[in-house]
């Protein structure tokens, strides 16, 4: 049972696969469903793969699970798990340091090599000698670690760290990996490259995907987790040719949906039987295929003091869709060039939900339901397709493939808007005072009507608006006035030189008291005892922030560690 703020904080952290100890991961993993088997198979085969899905769908969990199974089963490949979630710390180098791409290139390779020797990622005891192997190839672990640390802190490189940049290469990295793989007596290697979307830095992303492609050999198979909307592809990296894209997200209309979500909850949620079945079933639908969302809603129900189940569902589901939309909107801060696409995308999401409400009212007597909106493929220009992909990335719309219809035959791409938005809109209720749990469950349990609801985008959004849809130009950092052209050097409003605002710097200005996950007591103690620790910039500037936290009366090792984890998790989420 979750008894207090400390238990809550620990439980919240455990919902992120990054924070689940490797020893607990196997016990907390459900292996139900065809989607799990397919993703696991793709992560452990010899092909180059990109693992695609929105946040919380299970990409990290699957990669860490695959690494553990490879370690456990001798017939599986040698596996290296490495996360690149700190790539954003290198973002300022693009505008402040010559040779930033070369340093990034070396940072990626150094991260892979350090993952091999990481004691937490230890392989078969007495079989592999990663440290000695690196030394034989001319690399010192301490120098690699110091290089990575300095680059991530944007500090100047000493001569020995500069030597690392010169020495590291794809060829040497491949030789080291093959050498250690042979020691482990495995037939090939998979490199599980987590948090590889690098959405905030297109220059780095292009370089990264070139590295991924170059690491593929007959004995080495990279696997990279990416996002559907903001991940830019390299001109040299072609989906379907160099790599196959593997979706992780499961549709609410999948025949295995209930089975998969049930099995995850059983593994992850304490006191699950205390939650009424109807409440679990509504949350399961509202989670829209995101396991983390389902677990979080169940947790909120158990922690909350609600008058009845209906009040709980209204509050929790409403807050969930609100949070998802806010996260979607935040993409315009993280990637300003998508601002216009994101704005129109939100309008389309709302229009889709209302169209489905109208359609489902007409289907009540037939005992059918409509979840799909079909958009004619010819309308999906590259810019409109990117707009939909951003909605998919935020988990607000599920892309469900294409269907053919009519004579002459037309091809429609089907989309399902977020189920929580449909629940909040009472899409299966005839009157506005509806929304009872029974109506929600009965509506979603009906059989699908034969065809998707087919609509032209120009009937949803004015044709002129769609034709003008484009990437947004960065605003002036001084007066926030939009630019007139992409080659503009000075602001036409205030006259200041135009520079691109750093998303990293926006994150740095976030106040500590605004970071979700910290308790009121912790914020009060930090404010009283560390008055100079006001924002994320102050936190990251500290060489040993845990030491400062330990100096506060009432905060010991465990609390200090958890506070650090919350702040680090916030930075990683904000910039991922």
Give an account of the 3D structure.
With 576 residues, this protein is an alpha/beta fold. It folds into 3 domains: 20-247, Rossmann fold (3-Layer(aba) Sandwich); 257-467, no CATH class; 509-574, Orthogonal Bundle (DNA polymerase, domain 1), CATH 1.10.150. The protein has 26 helices and 11 strands. It has helices at residues 5-14, 22-25, 34-43, 59-72, 93-96, 100-117, 130-136, 141-152, 159-167, 170-183, 202-215, 257-268, 277-286, 291-303, 309-334, 339-363, 382-393, 419-424, 437-445, 457-460, 463-467, 503-508, 520-529, 536-541, 545-550, 557-574; strands at residues 49-52, 78-83, 189-194, 220-226, 244-247, 368-369, 373-376, 397-405, 410-417, 447-448, 453-455. The strands form 3 sheets. A 5-stranded parallel beta sheet has the order 2-3-4-1-5, with helices on both faces. Helix 1 packs across helix 26, helix 14 (291-303) crosses helix 15 (309-334) and helix 16 (339-363) crosses helix 17 (382-393). The longest helix has 26 residues, at 309-334. It is globular and about 75 Å long.
Question: Can you summarize this structure?
Answer:
This protein has 576 residues and is α/β, with parallel strands linked by helices. The chain contains 26 helices and eleven strands.
